[in-house]
Design goal:
By secondary structure, this protein is mostly helical. It is built from eleven helices and no strands.
Length: 285
């Protein structure tokens, strides 16, 4: 009768209520949340732990809690590595930098690091289905981001050194490009996969590289642009900024997966676009 009642509930108007009250997450996986092995529910964890003497601990699916613990460890470690060096930074009295400016540096480079990894991690996971294998997705997405973000970085270096164009305006254009491309590609991704689903691996690979190229190029601009600016007004903070960006990248690589489990891939991309937009108010000046 248990399985009968379950099937009956799932086929009725009470399906959502049944899924929410069930001890495990048994909602069907979708392309937006393709986590077939994600059964863990925080609401059931306490009950399972209370029954640990009766074997309840074995009912806890460990993958998700391990991610949460990893995030906690990464966050605490990053907090130490970011805040501790501030006490030892030498202040340049010829170019003093107030607390507000330091907070802007922290916010800017953390947002860039988190936004970049949010988009990169989600793109890797989204393209697994399209490229038909995780290794192919990881290889080509990583390759595309590194190459085209590097091109964006090189463009920034050349542009800043040879032009008197205001760096902040270039930042505005790049962030606008990131936001527009991110939203557009999120909406149009299903069209790409449907149109090229029967194509050869070569065609799919070329399409993937071309798909990544515009957003990766724009994403390669904010980091060197701010580094160039910071090296001019507070060179003593450049190593700290690199550390902030690195720590944010580590945290966001874990956080992106956790968020995707709950809110889906596209929502994580929109969140990343929002983080990039935040850099417009935290650009070092």
């Amino acid at each position: 009768p248990f399985f009968y009642e379950g099937a009956k509930a799932l086929l009725s108007d009470q399906a959502d209520q049944y899924l929410s009250s069930y001890k495990f997450n048994v909602a069907p996986a979708t392309d937006e949340k393709p986590f077939f092995t994600q059964y863990f529910k925080w609401s059931s964890a306490g009950e399972f732990l209370a029954l640990r003497d009766q074997g309840g601990i074995t009912l806890i699916e460990t993958g998700y809690p391990v991610l949460v613990v990893s995030l906690f460890v990464a966050f605490i470690t990053s907090l130490i590595l970011i805040l501790l060096p501030v006490r030892f930074l030498r202040e340049d009295h010829t170019q003093p930098l107030g607390k507000k400016q330091k907070w802007k540096v922290l916010a800017y480079f953390a947002a860039v690091g988190a936004g970049f990894l949010f988009i990169e991690v989600v793109y890797i996971q989204k393209f697994v289905l399209f490229l038909e294998h995780p290794i192919y997705a990881f290889t080509w997405i990583l390759f595309s981001f590194l190459v085209f973000a590097g091109m964006g970085s090189y463009f920034t270096q050349v542009f800043v050194s040879r032009s008197s164009y205001p760096p902040y305006k270039l930042l505005v254009y790049s962030i606008t490009g990131i936001a527009l491309v991110a939203v557009t590609e999120s909406i149009a991704f299903s069209t790409l996969t449907e149109y090229l689903s029967d194509s050869s691996n070569v065609v799919k690979t070329l399409a993937t590289v071309l798909w990544i190229s515009p957003i990766a190029f724009f994403m390669g601009i904010p980091m060197p642009l701010a580094m160039s600016r910071l090296s001019g007004i507070a060179p003593q903070l450049v190593p700290w900024a690199w550390g902030i960006n690195g720590c944010a990248s580590v945290i966001s690589a874990i956080l992106a997966t956790i968020l995707a489990v709950h809110i889906g891939f596209n929502s994580v991309i929109y969140l990343a676009a929002g983080l990039y937009l935040c850099t417009l108010i935290s650009f070092p000046d």
